[in-house]
Amino acid sequence: MSIEQLTEDNFESKLKDNSPIIVDFWASWCGPCMMMSPVFEELSGDYKDKLTFGKVNTEEAPNVASKNNIMSIPCLVVFKDGKEIDRIVGAMPKEALKQKIDTIIG
Fold first, then answer.
1. Which of 3, 33, 36, 73 is catalytic?
2. Cβ neighbours around 29 below 10 Å, total
3. 3, 15, 22, 30: which one is catalytic?
4. Contacts of 64 (CB under 8 A, 6+ apart)
């Protein structure tokens, strides 16, 4: 289970990797974000060969959040080849999130 901490310095370069990446935009004051954190962590192990997992703290990287039009958190954005292909907004149980991810990445 490996989740990459993404910052203003490494965000763009990480998106240029060829593998799809799901990025959790979150903040420490956000209760639903804290509820989603262990779910996101667990799923990172389930998809280790198919999907990269990353996190962006919107307080520490406000420009990354702004550039990606993050209006509410938690917000999970799936990127492939540097482009957004889908987003999931709000907290949800692990199985519901897993179904959405499976639908997105096929």
1. 33
2. 10
3. 30
4. 6, 7, 8, 11, 56, 58
Q: Which residues pair with 21 in a beta bridge?
A: 52, 79
The verdict on whether 75 is a catalytic residue reads no
DSSP string of 36-92, one letter each residue: HHHHHHHHHHHTTTT-EEEEEETTT-HHHHHHTT--SSSEEEEEETTEEEEEEES--
Domains and CATH numbers, the chain: 3-105 (3.40.30.10)
- 16: confidence class by pLDDT, cuts 50, 70, 90: confident
Q: In the prediction, which pLDDT does 17 show?
A: 76
- Measure CA of the first residue to CA of the last residue in the chain; give whole Å: 21
Length of the chain, in residues: 106
